[in-house]
């Protein structure tokens, strides 16, 4: 398998099997890997992803940390919005309607938060901890425990990593939050959890928005201890199938945290084997609260206009000497309309 800076593995998006999946909906996702001279095309929902070199997969799974520890930075343009001029504004705003793709910074970053060793130590302590794993989600069931139930040494490790690595990163990449993070420091007890997925219990988490200014999600389990899983980010349209299938799964190596605006619609992809433990943190400007909101897709309105592409290549985040892989998504409908070159390869950060 050719490696393109991020590695790919075959995987199904959450909950769906080949038999259940509609084959043709005309929607094709173009995945351009910046700087990699390759493009991938994904005919959603469950066709294969074709990397130009000819390798086929069921869906693209990005595993930041597997090959290059950090950073992976993804910007994406959801396939179909009804707000042509304001797809990706500079400031996040709450979901305008539960069926809409949120108007938020559509970026996803991967940050090495903990060393794999520290992640393993926290994972094993949470497995041993005499605590009840329970569902804390009011709107969405989860199996989780509060970080405050861990030993003070583990809590200190987590707090220190967040303060020293995550917060400075968040201030740099989400400048609209910098002042707020100064005034209202993070982390605070209450919105920091360890979430557990098991094949026999809770396998995944359905599509939702966290309704937070910022969310991070750090894998604690070693990749060899589970199969499937990962965080699914939709690039889909407003109908249920597209929301659940058009998108990508990101499965970071242990210790690597995904960081994103909490309004982005995402899901915990079902695990297929073993156990997956993640550390999840929510930053809300007004302190801890119940944050996860399920997404209830509604049928698209007649004649809703597709969003034109906004390939702001010049905007690509390029922090210092760090090399970001930037992945753009655009829809086949736009390509078909001649708005996006069908087979072009963009070089991000150029
Ligand atoms: O399992 C995941 O990767 C996603 C977790 C998540 O979205 C959440 O805890 O709110
Ligand atoms: Fe979430």
Keyphrases for this structure?
disordered C terminus, 16% helix, binds fe (ii) ion, 350 residues, six-stranded mixed β-sheet, 5 helices, alpha+beta, binds 2-oxoglutaric acid, Jelly Rolls
Describe the 3D structure:
The chain is an alpha+beta fold and about 350 residues long. The protein has a single domain, classed as q2cbj1_9rhob like domain (Jelly Rolls), CATH 2.60.120. The protein is about 15% helix and about 25% strand. It contains five helices and 19 strands. The longest helix has 22 residues. The structure holds 2-oxoglutaric acid and fe (ii) ion. The site of fe (ii) ion has 5 residues, from loops. 2-oxoglutaric acid binds next to strand 16 and strand 17.
Query: For the CA atoms, what is the radius of gyration?
Result: 19 Å
Which class of secondary structure composition applies to the elements? alpha+beta
User: Which regions have little confidence, pLDDT < 50, spanning 5+ residues?
Assistant: 1-30, 32-60, 63-103, 299-350
First-to-last CA distance? 27 Å
Family: Belongs to the iron/ascorbate-dependent oxidoreductase family.
Domain Fe2OG dioxygenase: 188-285
Region (Disordered): 290-316
Protein name: Fe2OG dioxygenase domain-containing protein
